[in-house]
Amino acid sequence: MSRYREGLTLGEGPRWHDGALWVSDPQKGGIWTDNGGTWAFTPLAAQPNGLWFLPDGRLVGAIMREKRVGLWDGAGFGAYADLSGVAAGPLGDMVGDRHGGLYVDDVGYAAHLGEQPRPGRLIHVTPDGRATVAAEDVEFPNGLAIIGDGRTLVVAETWAQRLTAFTIGAGGALSDRRLFADLAAVVHPEARPDGICAAAHGVWVCTLSAHTVALVDESGLLDRIGTGDGQPVACCLDPAGRLFVTVAETGGRSVLEAVAARTLKTHVDVHEPGVRR
Fold first, then answer.
1. Which of 30, 94, 135, 219 could form a disulfide with 50 if both were Cys (CB 3.0 to 4.6 A apart)?
2. Distance CA 195, CA 197 (A)
3. Which InterPro entries does the protein's record reference (predicted)?
4. What is the distance of C-alpha 38 from the center of its chain?
5. What is the C-alpha to C-alpha distance for residues 181 and 254, in angstroms, rounded to an integer?
6. Strand, coil or helix: 48
7. Which phi and psi angles does 169 have, rounded to 5°?
8. How far apart are alpha carbons 129 and 79 in whole angstroms?
9. H-assigned helices in 112-261
């Protein structure tokens, strides 16, 4: 992989849209993008985490502590969907379907603030902004991806070291919970998933302390990319198949420890398809 951009504290929810990369930085409190031709940061009072572009091109963000999804207006995230009635903890990643529905992580508790662990959940947001609980008892839900022509939702359960799949039904309902990939078995015993993204075949998953971005499907490991001393946090693909990965430099600490110590630094790397690793 080669260096694409620098300057982030923690890069989350990377999305490629209309020739530009967008990344949230919840620890620094804002959004990075090269949409204007140069890599620039917009500071915000809110802490955006997961990002997604709706079918009509509008950008929405999961606002961590405010328990809402906001609509980007160029300077901040305005009103879009209130999740306070169904979210118990901070909001994490977010993914959307072709109809404008969204799935959002409720991670259950603020691990970086030392809160006691408790199960998280997945929240479904309809195109008109109504929020309901789609799945309970998810073990620190993190990255999200929709695969299988829109029929399957995959979620990364960080502490369980696995990817879990659900069948998407009418109205966004989730059913048939099942194991998609046991990452400790197929990638590395220390593989703890964070961000993921859908690929043409399988799912790319960032595995933090395993220092690996792995391509997996239900049959096992398909490919892998090492990130050296850095810990891969989140990823996305552009239409040309380039893989963008936010990589955290932690100085040997875990990401949570580096966040607490305020020593975390993150950059964005890119892998070109067809380039040997």
1. 94
2. 7
3. 6-blade_b-propeller_TolB-like, SGL, SMP-30/CGR1_Lactonase
4. 24
5. 23
6. strand
7. -110, -165
8. 10
9. 183-186, 255-261
Q: Using one digit for the tens of pLDDT, what is the confidence trace for 55-110?
A: 999 999 999 999 999 999 999 999 999 999 999 899 999 999 999 999 999 998 66
Distance set, CA 204 to CA 58, 90, 150, 154 (Å):
25, 24, 17, 11
CA distance 172 to 121: 15
pLDDT (tens digit per residue) in 136-151: 999 999 999 999 999 9
Q: Is pLDDT above 90 for 236?
A: yes
Look up residue 35 and give its two tokens. Answer: 């949409």
Q: What tokens appear for 37 in the block?
A: 């031709």
Residue type, 55: P
Question: What are the angstrom distances between the C-alpha of 9 and each of 69, 115, 144, 202?
Answer: 22, 22, 21, 29
- Cα distance between residue 253 and residue 189, in whole Å: 18
> In the predicted model, is pLDDT for residue 225 greater than 60?
yes
Backbone angles phi, psi at 212, to 5 degrees: -145, 140
Q: What strands, in cross-sheet order, belong to the sheet with 20-25? A: 12-17, 20-25, 30-33, 40-43
- The predicted structure's pLDDT at residue 115: 67
